Amino acid sequence: MSLDVFRGLTVMAMLLVNNPGDWGHIYAPLEHAKWHGCTPTDLIFPFFLFIVGVSIVYALDSARQAGHHGPLLRRIARRAAVLFGLGLFASLFLLWDLRTVRIPGVLARIALVFLACGVLFVKTTWRQQLGVLALLLVGYNVLIQLVPVPGIGAANLEPATNLGAWLDRLVLGEAHLWQESRTWDPEGLLSTLPAIGTGLLGLLAGQLLRLKNLDAASKVAWLLVAGGAALLLGLVWSNWLPLNKSLWTSSFVLYTGGIAAMVLAAFYWLIDVQGYRRGLTPFVAFGVNAITAFFLSSLLARGLNHWQVAGPNGPVGMKDWLYQTLFVPFIPDPYLASLAGGLAGVLIWLGVLWMMYRRGIIIKV
């Protein structure tokens, strides 16, 4: 249950960050770091990828031990393809222009991390997975800081001129990148390699929790120690390679993965070991239908922005009209009004997901 609660909290935070009342007045803790650095908001996506890794262990361990890996690998590939397809559909929704559709994205990255970690879980041991993790983090560090960028010059960590941005433009083309820049993408191809490392940290944590010869207190202690060590190593590494979510730097992987491990340890101890369950149903409701909540909320947000209604200064999107009508007149502080608008959206989705949960409706992707 602790994993569902952790996932539910993470998705609720995702919805809150992705749908503020007013993009021009985002409540400060809900903003990403401008470039280098790590805010509380920057923890959300790595937390989710860490949870993906933990979930793989619980979902696939029995089938892996039973053998016959062919069907299991096909199942992993099919789920990754569905997740990737949902991401493309969300990007195309209401625009339907294949010439400019964004190919990278949150769901695309989840799909690729799930695919890589799923295959590694089935085909490798935890020691080999630890080796792959080290190779990915060190290898990415070498690529991003030492390899010259063709047509630009020396290796650098700037948004539009780093090696990852160059690779995205080369392979995908500017038309298919994040529309806010068109020169780079925060979920680009090269930075997906260390993102797989985040999933591997979750994979290792999940295997620790599944050990049958280790008592609960020891599992919590190991998670806390390993998480703390990863956090400290990430902070030390950040002196050479800064924490950066958009580049998904190796230091960022260790720092955020370490925090995720310690949060999971706390939840596991309180919920699964000590049996604390009061007031957790809303988070479980979000957690068991996490992808559904994220996907449908993305479609609804785009639909409300696309639907134009008459405003005092001309047509405006329905989302903006609702915000200006229901929140701005009653909350003088624009940042608090923006926060209230985002929270209202989360509460609406909580109502939907709670009804689904009460009726036993869980949509498997």
Write the layout of secondary structure elements.
Blueprint: H1 2-18, H2 44-65, H3 69-92, H4 106-123, H5 126-146, H6 163-171, H7 192-209, H8 216-237, H9 250-273, H10 281-288, H11 290-306, E1 308-311, E2 314-317, H12 318-326, H13 334-358
Antiparallel strand pairs: 1-2
Brief account:
The chain crosses the membrane at residues 43-60, 80-96, 102-122, 129-147, 188-209, 221-240, 252-271, 283-301, 335-357. The protein is an all-alpha fold and 365 residues long.
Structure description:
Helix 2 (44-65) crosses helix 7. Strand 1 and strand 2 (314-317) form a beta hairpin. The two termini are 19 Å apart. This protein is globular. The protein has helices spanning 2-18, 44-65, 69-92, 106-123, 126-146, 163-171, 192-209, 216-237, 250-273, 281-288, 290-306, 318-326, 334-358; strands at residues 308-311, 314-317. The chain folds into 2 domains: 1-31 and 278-365, no CATH class; 35-275, no CATH class. With 365 residues, the chain is mainly alpha-helical. Strands 1-2 form a two-stranded antiparallel ribbon. Helix content is 64%, strand content 2%. Keywords: Membrane, Transmembrane, Transmembrane helix. This is DUF5009 domain-containing protein. The chain crosses the membrane at residues 43-60, 80-96, 102-122, 129-147, 188-209, 221-240, 252-271, 283-301, 335-357.
